[in-house]
Design goal:
Blueprint lengths: L2 E4 L5 E4 L2 E2 L8 H12 L5 E2 H8 L5 H19 L5 E4 L2 E4 L4 E3 H17 L4 H17 L12 H27 L3 H14 L1
Parallel strand pairs: 1-7
Antiparallel strand pairs: 1-2, 2-3, 4-6, 5-6
Helix pairs in contact: 1-3, 2-3, 4-5, 4-6, 6-7
Length: 195
């Protein structure tokens, strides 16, 4: 991936292995647009929706103009237009070039749920362990934890927190059934910390 975006516990952009720094001042509105896009799911998000969230005090045309300008600035800041795909008035982060910790966390939580529903053999138990380790490495804290809470970020934060806590509960139960109480306690503690 050319760009990696970390939103869990912190907000960091990494391009080609190097953290992006601001030349002079922080590109506030472009980064806010990026955060709002990720909070909305990052795929096929209507520009009118994003504009109304970021510029609630502006009418349709003025909000759209502000959106267009901000999108241009965000693309310039990221370095390539291809990172953000615009089709039919909908904006998408290009998943072939952009990695987002939220997407990876959700993928791993879904994988964990599938693994726990299988017949458990030694190979599956090993996969579950690797998947759990990956989830715990990725989930460094709540979605945009160091940012001021906004109406558009709370939904993503709550959804991920709930999925993580349920995942840790299921994982703890699994380790108990495997006769490994120390691992179960660790998972329960992780869930309690997040909750």
């Amino acid at each position: 991936y050319s760009v990696r975006i970390y939103t869990l516990g912190r907000f960091t952009l990494v391009r080609e292995g190097e953290p992006l720094h601001y030349a002079r001042k922080s590109p506030g509105k472009p980064l806010q647009l990026l955060k709002a896009l990720i909070a909305a799911g990052g795929r096929q998000i209507g520009t009118a929706n994003l504009a109304s969230v970021l510029w609630p005090d502006k009418d349709g045309d003025l909000a759209q103009q502000s959106f267009d300008t901000t999108l241009h600035r965000l693309r310039k800041y990221l370095g390539k237009d291809q990172y953000l795909i615009m089709e039919d008035g909908r904006l998408t982060l290009n998943s072939e070039l952009v990695w987002i910790d939220v997407w990876e966390c959700e993928r791993q939580l879904t994988k964990l749920r599938c693994l726990l529903s299988r017949h458990i053999d030694a190979g599956t138990a090993n996969e579950i362990s690797h998947c759990a380790d990956r989830i715990m490495r990725i989930y460094q804290g709540h979605f945009l934890a160091r940012e001021q809470s906004t109406c558009w970020s709370v939904s993503m934060e709550e959804r991920l927190k709930s999925r993580f806590v349920h995942g840790m509960l299921a994982l703890g139960t699994f380790w108990e059934q495997q006769g490994l109480p120390a691992k179960a306690v660790f998972c329960y503690q992780k869930g309690i910390e997040v909750d």
